[in-house]
């Protein structure tokens, strides 16, 4: 049996078309939200407070990136040469709004994944077994759907 | 940790130049004693809008480290990681201090006297934060009352100064200084060559900018205890205000560069 390649999933994800990758990330975000909603009642008030403390600061950062990409999208559509303000050297490094939105989506996915993991681990009753249970559940789900068999 | 890994993580080739610019600007604003580019100033201005989330980030790291030492959450929140803690408020003030240093540096290198007033604008944030922290630590009623009065006064000064600066200096809207030899206006007056149509967009931006700036005082005030949801809403409103600010700031920046916006693309928003 071949060894499982740990980053195979990310390699496949990066090789996809941008629209396909976006679709997968949106679906993953929906899955994370559904997971959070499902486990929400299971977690204690203390854990809810911790969740807010740990993850609330990331939301404005993600929002700022989304809104900056919205700024750039509007400038592009209205033909405003905002790049001129950045000077010759820096303007070469500016990317199009589509790429910015993709980066914002990736960042949002990262945060929502961590939130879902946090909520899931809090919803499991025995804290010391959280990681083990999460891994076992993920593995069984992947095996059920035939994802892991591709990597062996 | 997420942000550090995002900065350090290898990115796809299409993002590498932007990633490099972001990292370069971030390092330049952290050590601002050098020439300030537009990217540096814009990123630093955006960071001032994210000052409260940055302080919360510092607080969450503080809580995380203390909880590892088997302390109870309520004890941690009351003791080492309370809202009046010095290290949390230093992080809160840091973006404004960085922006102030940038202004002073431009004044030093280019002798642009207007930048001194801009630096003063960022300096007015400090009394707001300081009085709020002092109020948080005050023990008796008299002291609490005193610091509340200082806080209200400094907040009003900061808000009005920042609002005036947004309109007249950043957005190039004719007001007290007048424009092109014109006399000062009692009310802010939108330029005839304004790019975005219809023009009420500017009026809307001026009103919402003021309203959200009042909410922005709340972010700097550690003694105003509300839920995290309120914190989040206020932070998101501030981010929206910054997005709106960028639209008009880019327009005025291009006008100042004496490069007229393309007439062919003068579309309504």
What distinguishing features does this structure have?
heterodimer, A: 152 residues, mainly alpha, 7 helices, 0% strand, globular, B: 269 residues, disordered C terminus
Layout: helices, strands, pairs:
The complex is a heterodimer of chains A (152) and B (269).
Chain A: H1 8-15, H2 18-40, H3 45-55, H4 58-78, H5 87-91, H6 97-123, H7 130-144
Chain B: H1 2-8, H2 16-30, H3 38-49, H4 51-67, H5 73-78, H6 86-110, H7 114-123, H8 125-137, H9 141-170, H10 200-219, H11 228-256
Helix pairs in contact in B: 2-3, 3-6, 4-6, 6-7, 6-8, 8-9, 9-10, 10-11
How would you characterize the overall build of this protein?
Chain A is built from 7 helices and no strands. Chain A is an all-alpha fold and 152 residues long. The longest helix of chain A is centred in the C-terminal third of the chain and has 27 residues. The model of chain A has no long low-confidence stretch (mean pLDDT 81). Chain B has 269 residues and is an all-alpha fold. Chain B is 68% helix and 0% strand. In chain B, helix 8 packs antiparallel against helix 9. Chain B is globular. The two termini of chain B are 39 Å apart. The C terminus of chain B is likely disordered.
Q: Order of helices and strands of chain A, N to C?
A: HHHHHHH
- Percentage of residues in helical conformation of chain B: 55-70%
Distance between the amino and carboxyl termini of chain B? 39 Å
Please provide the count of β strands of chain A: 0
What is the percentage of strand-forming residues of chain A?
Answer: under 5%
Oligomeric description of these chains: heterodimer
Radius of gyration of chain A: 20 Å
Helix content of chain A: over 70%
């Amino acid at each position: 049996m071949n060894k499982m390649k740990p980053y195979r999933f990310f390699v496949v994800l990066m090789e996809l078309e941008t629209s396909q990758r976006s679709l997968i990330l949106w679906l993953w975000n929906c899955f994370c939200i559904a997971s959070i909603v499902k486990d929400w009642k299971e977690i204690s008030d203390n854990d809810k407070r911790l969740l807010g403390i740990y993850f609330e600061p990331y939301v404005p950062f993600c929002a700022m990136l989304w809104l900056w990409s919205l700024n750039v999208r509007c400038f592009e559509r209205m033909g405003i040469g905002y790049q001129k303000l950045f000077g010759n050297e820096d303007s070469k490094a500016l990317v199009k709004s589509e790429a910015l939105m993709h980066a914002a989506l990736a960042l949002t996915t990262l945060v929502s994944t961590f939130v879902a993991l946090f909520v899931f681990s809090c919803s499991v009753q025995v804290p010391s077994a959280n990681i083990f249970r999460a891994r076992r559940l993920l593995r069984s789900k992947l095996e059920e759907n035939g994802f892991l068999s591709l990597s062996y | 940790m997420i942000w550090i890994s995002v900065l350090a993580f290898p990115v796809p080739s299409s993002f590498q130049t932007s990633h490099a610019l972001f990292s370069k600007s971030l390092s330049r604003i952290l050590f601002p004693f050098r020439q300030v580019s537009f990217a540096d100033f814009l990123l630093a201005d955006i960071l001032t809008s994210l000052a409260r989330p940055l302080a919360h980030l510092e607080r969450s790291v503080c809580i995380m480290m203390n909880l590892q030492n088997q302390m109870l959450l309520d004890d941690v929140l009351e003791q080492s990681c309370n809202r009046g803690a010095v290290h949390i408020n230093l992080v809160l003030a840091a973006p404004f201090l960085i922006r102030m240093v940038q202004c002073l540096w431009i004044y030093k290198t280019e002798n642009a006297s207007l930048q001194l007033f801009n630096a003063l604008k960022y300096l007015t944030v400090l009394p707001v934060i300081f009085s709020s922290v002092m109020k948080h630590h005050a023990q008796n009623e008299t002291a609490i009352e005193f610091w509340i009065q200082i806080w209200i006064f400094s907040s009003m000064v900061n808000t009005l100064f920042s609002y005036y600066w947004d309109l007249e200096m950043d957005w190039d809207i004719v007001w007290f200084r007048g424009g092109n030899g014109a006399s000062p206006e009692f009310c802010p007056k939108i330029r005839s060559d304004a790019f975005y149509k219809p023009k009420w967009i500017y009026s809307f931006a001026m009103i919402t900018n003021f309203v959200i700036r009042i909410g922005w005082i709340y972010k700097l005030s550690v003694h105003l205890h509300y839920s995290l949801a309120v914190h989040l809403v206020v932070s998101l409103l501030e981010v929206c205000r910054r997005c709106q600010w960028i639209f008009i700031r880019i327009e005025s920046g291009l006008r100042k560069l004496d490069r007229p916006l393309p007439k062919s693309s003068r579309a309504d928003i």
